[in-house]
Amino acid sequence: MSLVRTETDRGITTLTLDSPANRNALSAPLVTELAEALTACAKDRAVRAVVLAHTGTTFSAGADLKAPPGPYAFVDLLRQIVELPKPVVGLVSGHARAGGLGLLGACDVVLAADGSDFALTEVRIGVAPAVISLTLLPKLEPRAAARYYLTGERFGVPEARAMGLVTAGADELPAVLDGLRTASPQGLREAKRLVTARVLAAFERDAEELVQLSASLFASAEAREGMTAFLERRDPAWRM
């Protein structure tokens, strides 16, 4: 059963994360399928742009703690979205958590429906938003990033727009897609290179260090306690 559905309409390919049973968590199979679908979009000259959408009430709950992708595989996926020679529009209608925000950070435009919410919950299971910092920190307002990295609080669409995570409301999708269909393939490709340069510089500079940090954190005793507590639906030992 496919975890990523593909549909194309007038040059726009929609890739829909379709694993609602685990809230579209980033499992190794889902990451592999999404990477393969993006590769196909990059090669297809008829595809002008990509929309990254989801089924269910959650865009992505972050890493699948039962079947996580390797950190290098996830870094490669994020970089693939950033480097794709076609714009990628993230479309959220519901919740996005942890690694799911990393996917949104890699997108060129992010649209979110009213009532959607977001959270960087890594600190609550004993780790940190390490790898996803590659796509988030170049785009987020620093004070807001500090607050939500450190507290794991949920925040809504107004806060997400103010901090640079979300571009506009989901009702802007028709206008955005019309604009992308009007633009030339060469123009889109070269314009995207300009706006992604800072993000790609972060990959070149920091990717290896952040992968190693992520691996060490997930292997720690605190992370084992945090993940066990999460799966057992109880408070971790450090909760005060």
UniProtKB/TrEMBL annotation:
The protein's name in its UniProt record: Enoyl-CoA hydratase family protein
Any one Pfam family match given in the protein's UniProt record, by short name: ECH_1
Top-level lineage group: Bacteria
Organism name: Streptomyces roseoviridis
Family: Belongs to the enoyl-CoA hydratase/isomerase family.
